[in-house]
Amino acid sequence: MEVVGGETTVSDVDTFVEEVAAIGGEHGSTVQAFDARYVVGREHLERAVTLAERARERGEAIADDRAVEILLYAAGRRQITDALGVGVSEGECPVVAVVVGGDEEGAAAALRDLLGPADTLGAYDPGRVRAFFGITDEELAATESDLADVVLERVALLTVEK
Questions:
Q1: Residue 46, CA atoms < 13 Å, CB-side half-sphere
Q2: Residue 139 needs a FRET pair 20 to 30 A away by CA distance; which of 29, 96, 109, 152 works?
Q3: What is the pTM of this model?
């Protein structure tokens, strides 16, 4: 698994998604891009990929597409339209993308060419993350865990919320 961060201006989300998918296709990789403001760190992506792969291996995948399955787990949502909230949006957007399988290094290099250089992994927006994942002050106060740990729990809970 490779993780690539950067910044870009997205004029059309569908076009951007097609460009990212084409990079994956050229390198035999699965590539999923996220708005970096919702990704709490590398472990967030690692857990989403691991759980998505496990679901596919067990024949329990929610989505037919591997990249979409990773998106669903990263978002902790079963509905694609809801999960797209952590995806890229139009305008200036900090991006973090995960590359799985195939020529990961080649796909990662092509993504770096597509994105402007920026250190986006781990530069999440706590307010956005809390709003998206529905994490309240009370929930954070009731645990010794930090925000990232609570998000990782939400990702893991997707498999039990069927």
A1: 4
A2: 96
A3: 0.93
Residues 112-123: what's their mean pLDDT? 93
Q: How wide is the angle at C-alpha 72 spanned by C-alphas 67 and 74, nearest 5°? A: 95
Residue 81: CB atoms within 10 Å: 7
Domains of the chain: 2-157 (3.30.2380.10)
Whether 27 has a pLDDT exceeding 90, the answer reads yes
Radius of gyration of the chain (CA): 15
Structure tokens that stand for 113 in this block: 């060419």
Residue 112 to residue 143: CA distance in whole angstroms: 38
d(CA 143, CA 16): 39
Give the pLDDT band (50/70/90) at residue 135: very high
Q: What is the pLDDT of residue 143?
A: 87
H or E segment and range at residue 35: strand 30-35
Q: Which residue's structure tokens are 């993350």?
A: 129
Instruction: Give residue 79's Cα distance to chain centre.
Output: 15
Q: Which stretches of the chain are DSSP H helices?
A: 13-27, 42-57, 66-75, 80-83, 104-114, 126-133, 137-141, 147-157
